[in-house]
Amino acid sequence: MSYSSVAAAAEEIVRSTGGNIVLGMPLGMGKPNPLVNALYRMACADSSISLTILTALSLTRPRASGELQQRFLAPFIERVYADYEELDYLHAARAHTLPDNICVNEFFVQPASELSNPYTQQNYINSNYTHAARDMNNRGVNVIAQTIASRNVNGEQQFSLSCNPEVLLDALPRLLQRRESGETVLVVAQIHPDMPFMENTAEVPAALFDMIIDDPAYSSRLISTPNMPVSMTEHFIGLGASALLKDGGTLQIGIGALGDAVASATLLRHTDNSSYRGLLDETGLTPDSFSVLAADGGADTFEQGLYGCSEMFTYGLFRLMEGGVIKRHVTDAQGRSICMHGGFFLGPNAFYESLRQMSPEQHSSIDMTHISFVNSLYGQEELKRQHRVEARFVNTAFTVTLMGAGVADQLDDGRILSGVGGQYNFVAQAHELEGARSVLLVRATREKDGKVSSNIVWNYAHTTIPRHLRDIVVTEYGVADLRSKTDAEVIAAMLNICDSRFQQELMETAKEHGKLAQDHQIPERFQNNNPQKLREIYLQHHRAGHFPDFPLGSDFTYVEEMLLPALSWLGAHMKTSAIAELARVSVISDATAEHYQPHLARMGCDKPTTIRDRLYRQLLLMALCAVDKTEQ
């Protein structure tokens, strides 16, 4: 049934379910926000309505943590997010104002956004995203809804699940079984005019839906995730990972700066191979430097190309398609020729526009499909094994133990940071597929409040990837091949890619616990793992354009791109005891202030009239000078 009014559709859902709604939705952009908000407001106004929401990754505009951040974000948000309709339930959950008759359960949350939210921490469902459809069904979902794309071809209206076919396609068989047994189950779609129309498996008949909402009043901006800058550290990690890719193989990567860094280095390998090989030589990542590179990777261009198979179809993967890297086609069970299988997509506005502007040939080579198809070997296993040759499943962790366990979803105190998503599935596949490897990317250190600590630790109270699934770990200092190694060999390999400021303490801890020979020494060539060594290489090539700050493009202006690292620098140093006093007494020349005048103006600090504004001006100038100095 077709509805031209979101309000009318919401009323029908309440009537059909008797006011007991268990609503399932996909993650990210696929949520029909106007419909969800209509249902939420009806439940707020009528306590007899019970509304449970089961979903993942509820997104919102970026939030500022202070006045300087707010000054930066306000114009950016207005420009990039425009009239995007926020999710009412998300704000209520964060403000602890959800009514008792409304419950929100998520499988995956925006990274680090819910650490201080007891409601989300208590109502989170810890599950592989592959099992989200199963878990929704087990919790009694009776309405499953999402945003879809529509187009008219020769007078016929066609429909596509677009960015999020992954959960609905897997949930349908169970939902239809329950419907056949007499339960009320509704499949609801809301059309958005800007949603990219994806073909192949994502294209579905109108009969799939019980309700199709096409309300012209709701065409607000789609949610996007702008590309963030890629740091020196991330570029070196991406370089190491890119050398592990094998021509004619398979690639999965995730979202974020590390995924962008991998895509950027891979494009450089393909388009400017001589510069790429020079970088490998300078960083010691030549194919004969690490056995894993010589055996499993290389530095050649991609003549056969890669086949993409990734839970998340990222903008980086799309750019690899455009750049002629992802071009190896496989034949699916329907006889279609596909070079990219994905479960869902999310990214910057430029990504959506590129998808809308693709040629028919490009469209036909991408298949957005079941999450179970992409993330699992079960089902069509023989076909998947034929497709996924020489696979490299590249994921990120925030901590790795010295014995190879990875931590990506939860802190040691139990608080959920983000979620497992599909990471465990891909790591497990790497051990089941002939020639496949799991590659975990981790920054060797992190800095908070001016203090540097190691992300490689002796032990951690929680693990996402257990150490018996250890494989390859990449930091900015190199590649550690851990597969089939003894504990002592694993520890030795991990010590070689640690920051040298923490190597000795970690080595002594391993020896103390009898896991490393007392006479073990870290090879001399790994005893100088420090940012200064990397910076010399980085600056030389950064000036030549090989390590761009925004390798996949930017939604930020030129001035904003300079302000981002400056604000990040402030965030890392603001709580140190001397910073405020230093800002108060620092003498900054008029010439320096004039040089940064556009940056000060963008932040409203060019003409300070209050003590606070003068302090903000000083802090900004200090940060801009500090960041500029590191680029020289």
UniProtKB/TrEMBL annotation:
Q: Does the keyword Hydrolase apply?
A: yes
User: What keyword terms does UniProt attach to this protein?
Assistant: Hydrolase
Instruction: Name the Gene3D superfamilies on file.
Output: 4-hydroxybutyrate coenzyme like domains, Acetyl-CoA hydrolase/transferase C-terminal domain, Glutaconate Coenzyme A-transferase
Q: Listed GO molecular functions?
A: hydrolase activity
InterPro entries recorded for this chain?
Answer: AcetylCoA_hyd_C, AcetylCoA_hyd_C_sf, ActCoA_hydro, NagB/RpiA_transferase-like
Sequence ranges assigned to domain Acetyl-CoA hydrolase/transferase C-terminal in this UniProt record: 347-510
**Which superkingdom is the protein from?**
Bacteria
PANTHER family, per the entry: ACETYL-COA HYDROLASE (PTHR21432:SF20), ACETYL-COA HYDROLASE-RELATED (PTHR21432)
Q: Identify this protein by name.
A: Acetyl-CoA hydrolase/transferase family protein
Q: Which organism is it from?
A: Candidatus Litorirhabdus singularis
